[in-house]
Amino acid sequence: MANSLDQQRYKCAMGAMQTVQAIEGAIPILHSGPGCAQKIGGGSGSSGKFSPNIFPCTSVSEKEVVFGGAEKLATTIDNALKIIDAELFVVLTGCTSELIGDDVEEVVKRFKGAEKPVVYVNTPGFKGNNFEGHGWVLQAIFDQYLPPAGVVPKQKGLVNIFSGIPQQDPFWYGNLRELEKLIASLGFEPNTIFGYGRGLESLNKIPAAEFNIVVSPWAGVDATKFLGTKYDTPVLHYPVLPIGAFETTKFLQAVGEFTGLDPEFVTSVTDEYEREFYYFIERYSDLFLEMRILSKRFTVIADAQYALAFTKFLVNDMGMFPNTQFITDRTPVQFQPLIAEEFKKLNYDIEADVQFLTDGYDIHQIIRGEEFGGFPLIIGSSWDKKFAAELSANFVNLANPLIERLVVNSSLVGYSGGLQLIEHIYSAGLARLVL
Question: Which of 166, 177, 269, 382 sits CB 3.0–4.6 Å from 22 for a disulfide?
Fold first, then answer.
């Protein structure tokens, strides 16, 4: 018998509708039961143009379960093309349509000559979660929408950047913009497809890129590698979201080496960034050394991207010590050794133990048995707030689900992102002093 899962921190694969949403001008068409869009797509913003409330949906019922839903899907696509002012339509399948065996590929082929492009992705919940679905959506668009190799000429200095899952990562928008700025500071033209002013114009530029960079422990990595193979474009997989001076400098150095830049030029760029970063660190050094505010031990409960990034920053930049770190995104087994190894690559020969767990109850039970030597620092999701209060912990809510905090375009990436993270952490610590 299957066990229940307490405090789940991801959605089913069809939650990757949010990846489609984040591409301006694109809209998902759902071949699923009624209510899926509202239940798994809402609550965290939209593309600015299309709300989950208006996503076309076949609303599969008992009739389609018995007789098949292919024709209803064809009708839904046809009507969507007529009445919705979108530039790209992406069909996503739910559990029911997959179980009854509808040939979605065959249905979508009927619209090959349509005025607007239609692609399809198999995204049933029993196949995976929205972290995996994100990659499937990207790869489907790269495969079915983008032209073959050789059609679009290469553009020197153009770099495709992929990182974070739109809306699943509350800071996705600001993080992408900051990554763009960092890449641009090295003299490249960054190209991202999510958010304001990008959309299909940026999507159409993808084949012209000279390089691809994916900043992610695992989500979206396979799709980016597929892209690199399709257009014979080199791919840099950088597994750590760069936060703070140490990791961001390391990231820019890796980009410079990968693209063949002069190391002295890269150093001149990173030195300027670091001078400003450490100016602020020195200004508040007395505060950071005050043990009444924070203990020196911490734990992170988050997806692989943030569990790794926060750990690297807190150890390498802030001199803190990690207790067990918890990754909650159901990381595929083939990526777990690589990620676990990264937790051993910390300064001062420090290594962090990492647990790949998805059940909040199990995570909390392990933390209860650990020693923090004072008030612990716990960075987690809204699920962890009550638990942190039981431990009298300094709690910072930065992981999904993020219920009590509105994130519009804030960033945690780069040198400035490290300073923002310090503000979040020490604000939680200082709040204790006035209670």
Answer: 166
